[in-house]
Amino acid sequence: xxxxxxxxxxxxxxxxxxxxxxxxxxxxxxxxxxxxxxxxxxxxxxxxxxxxxxxxxxxxxxxxxxxxxxxxxxxxxxxxxxxxxxxxxxxxxxxxxxxxxxxxxxxxxxx
Length: 111
What we know:
By secondary structure, this protein is mainly α. It contains three helices and no strands.
């Protein structure tokens, strides 16, 4: 039988420390590009310090409404105990939405 590819050389012991160093520098260059790496306690997202209460409440209410729009149809597509859990989450979301709406109304009426 004729082989299309030659035999590969035997396993050699490579020093991978240089490869790791080069890979780390490349990743650092493209992903960090001089920006400081956030500390773990900072989290992934931040909220600008100069935002007012009403802006924060409006954005939270809209985000919550979006989550409700995602969760409600899902609750009616599943059966059994998983449906009960999904409906419980939907009810909790609706309660938090009511609290946010009330806080938003109070913030708007005092402004």
